[in-house]
Design brief:
It contains 20 helices and eleven strands. By secondary structure, it is α/β, with parallel strands linked by helices. Helix 15 packs across helix 18. The protein binds NADPH dihydro-nicotinamide-adenine-dinucleotide phosphate (NDP). Catalyzes the oxidative decarboxylation of 6-phosphogluconate to ribulose 5-phosphate and CO(2), with concomitant reduction of NADP to NADPH.
Length: 479
């Protein structure tokens, strides 16, 4: 037993994570893969790593020092369950099984409960940053027990990305908390990407600038408050020229966006929790809309605006779009953190929201300077009910809101879809409204279903006898 950590599953993510682990002082890494040829391949390709290979689960367990600690990086779903079943047979109470795959958090809650009954610790850990991150330093979001964190903490800290001197890993909360937070991270990523895409589309159609010219605008934005990995790579993608046609690559890529499901999970979960994550939802739906060519083909004949979209002052319009992007981005992140807050309350997790924003500053797709502002907001007011009301963000809205409105108006008039920009603005206006037409909805619900309502001027629950003499009576609260 010489290895302090093991990795099961040696496809791209697992082999890169194993190499990352092996490269850090103090780690000796045992490796196992269902198909042994892959283990041999990794061993041959990376003699410098000093891997301890295992051909069976028994050998794998024997090669690990206690408490045995293994990270599973296999195909999420049935693959994860199959590996857990095998590890549980050869591990002992106190040992630690970590699932680093993209599991849906209810599965993690279920697995943690089942594994815990054997005395073995089970940790669901969200790992972000793709294959490059796995190799050089991902952002890691582990759940699981406090006991497992004692052993796991130093190991994960050794391989995580470093942002401003701090490793991008924290013990998020118990059982499924890590995978929950990773899920919302991915949802926010969807929203951020869609917002950037809408900004590009508006500038392109409003000014007629080429993708290469717009790349320069994004590169410029990347030097200001929008500085982020996603803005940076957007400039790179827009600059790319297709070798076979000589056209901008973005013009030859089929405009149908794919998805692996984490955005949908985020939205489904938000619906169950009753949290409006409209930015993430619109971004997810925008991908769905794009991926129905048969519908788009027939809908293409529907009428659009009669007038051509002409922007009078290009520089002013571009600055408006930048501000609209920034304001919408604050809304998307605020909504995402709202979902984490609601999830923590629902599942009994003690999640430090400021710590979450900090571990996203490095290694992951949404890494950005902006996350420091979120950390500041929660440092000042840990139980902030609406993130975007923090003074720094309120000031940003003061600067941006007029521009944001102009952009949404321009998009609507020009017939350019801006689901994430406009839904974010509607959310903003909804949450800050003094009175909402929800009062009328309550009246309608009471009319057709006797669902009752509350009054602004006295306590109690009331019902108007709509089918009778329309007098009001006190009623049982039925919502
Ligand atoms: P894959 O998701 O392609 O999974 C392949 C690996 O799973 C192989 O090692 C395979 O073994 C193993 N496997 C599949 N079924 C079983 C089973 N029933 N029993 C044992 N082993 C099995 O690999 P990736 O490296 O792409 O991803 C690994 C995990 O990391 C996934 O959960 C993924 O969602 C997650 N992830 C991936 C990211 C990425 O950018 N790719 C980013 C973040 C997370 P064999 O060789 O024998 O077939």
């Amino acid at each position: 037993a010489v290895a302090n950590i093991g990795v099961v599953g040696l496809a791209v993510m697992g082999s890169n994570l194993a190499r990352n682990l092996a490269s850090r002082e103090g780690n000796t890494v045992a490796i196992f893969n269902r198909t042994y040829e892959k283990t041999q391949g990794v061993l041959d390709a990376h003699p410098e790593a000093g891997f301890i290979p295992a051909a069976t689960y028994e050998e794998f367990a024997a090669s690990l020092s206690k408490p045995r600690t293994a990270i599973i990086m296999v195909k999420a779903g049935a693959g994860t369950d199959a590996v857990i079943d095998e590890l549980v047979k050869v591990f002992e109470p106190g040992d630690i099984i970590v699932d680093g795959g993209n599991a849906f958090f209810p599965d993690t809650i279920r697995r943690e409960k089942a594994v815990r009954s054997t005395g073995i610790n089970f940790v669901g850990a969200g790992i972000s940053g793709g294959e490059e991150g796995a190799l050089t330093g991902p952002s890691i979001m582990p759940g699981g027990s406090d006991e497992s964190w004692v052993t796991l903490g130093p190991i994960l800290r050794s391989i995580a990305a470093i942002a401003e001197g701090e490793p991008c890993v924290t013990h998020v909360g118990h059982d499924g908390a890590g995978h929950f937070v990773k899920m919302v991270h991915n949802g926010i990523e969807y929203a951020d990407m869609q917002l950037i895409a809408e900004a590009y589309d508006l500038i392109r159609r409003g000014t007629g600038k080429s993708p290469a010219e717009i790349a320069e605008i994004f590169a410029e934005w990347n030097r200001g408050e929008l500085e982020s990995y996603l803005i940076e790579i957007t400039a790179e993608v827009l600059r790319q020229v297709d070798a076979s046609t000589g056209k901008p690559l973005v013009d030859v890529i089929l405009d149908q966006a794919g998805a692996k499901g984490t955005g949908a999970w985020t939205v489904q979960t938000a619906l169950s929790l009753g949290v409006p994550v409209s930015g993430i939802a619109e971004a997810t739906f925008a991908r769905s809309l794009s991926s129905h060519p048969e519908q788009r083909a027939v809908a293409g004949s529907l009428p659009g605006p009669a007038e051509e979209f002409v922007v009078a002052d290009e520089a002013a319009f571009i600055e408006d779009v930048r501000l609209a992007l920034y304001a919408s981005k604050i809304v998307a992140y605020s909504q995402g953190f709202d979902e984490i807050r609601a999830g923590a309350a629902e599942y009994g997790w003690n999640i430090d929201l400021g710590a979450i924003s900090k571990i996203w500053r490095g290694g992951c797709i949404i890494r950005a300077q902006f996350l420091n502002r979120i950390a500041d907001a929660y440092a000042e007011t840990p139980d902030l009910p609406v993130l975007m009301t923090a003074p720094y963000f309120a000031e940003a809205f003061t600067r941006a809101q007029a521009a944001w409105r102009r952009v949404v108006v321009a998009a609507a008039q020009a017939g350019i879809p801006s689901p994430a920009f406009s839904s974010s603005l509607s959310y903003y206006d909804g949450i800050r409204a003094d009175r909402l037409p929800a009062a009328l909805v309550q009246g309608q619900r009471d009319f057709f279903g006797a669902h009752t309502y509350k009054r602004i001027d006295k306590p109690g629950t009331f019902h108007t006898q709509w089918s009778g003499d329309r007098t009001e009576i006190e009623a049982e609260d039925t919502h």
